[in-house]
Task: structure prediction
Amino acid sequence: MPSRTMRTKAVFAFLFLLLFSSLSLGSTSTSTMLKKEYSHKAVQSTNQAQTSLPDLRKYPTGTPRKKAFLKTVVPVIEKVNQQIMEERNWLLSVRKNKKWSAQELRQLAQICDSYGMKCNNPQRINWDKLLSRVDIMPTHLVATQAATESGWGTSQLATQNGNLFGMRCGSGCQAKQGKVKGYSVYSSVEGTVTAYMKNMNTHNAYESLRNSRAKQRKSTDELDTTKLINDMKGYSELGSTYNRYLQEMYASNEELITQAQKRAITRI
Result:
């Protein structure tokens, strides 16, 4: 299981980013914070996910760098979310089955294992808990966190470890030459996004976020990014200060993320 991202060093890096961002990142929207609702049921990824980030330090700060970052990251987020939605839709389609084939039981066991649950008997599964885990994280939220944690892809963790979310690798990892010690190393953008999704969907620290998402699902198929950011706890030692900054980042860059998302998907 990916480790909880409680990072002492990252606190100082984040505070520096907070100061730097106010000077150089620039808002792409002059409006006040808007609620972004997102549904993944009617989209399909069309862009091939790029394997690694370009050297974003070569791009001027502000909009050019942001667009280059989002052009690479957003299609990957869409791809991973699409895979999760396929699993979720399958679970919803078989949930009330009275008879299960051997193949269905194997598929169920594989999904449950991927999300940190054991499902030996379909009749005894905590389906609400399982479905609270097998769900997407809205593209706008994931892109906002990736930009925040990686300094728009220019941080040492991003350039050396391919790590966009500040994910620690735990006590069992070994230091690798040229890599930041103590943090997970990923060879592709898809690798770091997939690990982030698994962390958010399985770690006990983010159960309140998953419960908030599940509650939204009961009333609508769409997810409210603003509310999910507010309900996120445990990701940073900065606490509510981190959440407020994520909201500012989201509001300032919502339009750019939406543009990148439209280029990455085709609405059916």
About this structure: The chain has ten helices and four strands. The first strand starts at residue 37 and ends at 38. The radius of gyration is 19 Å.
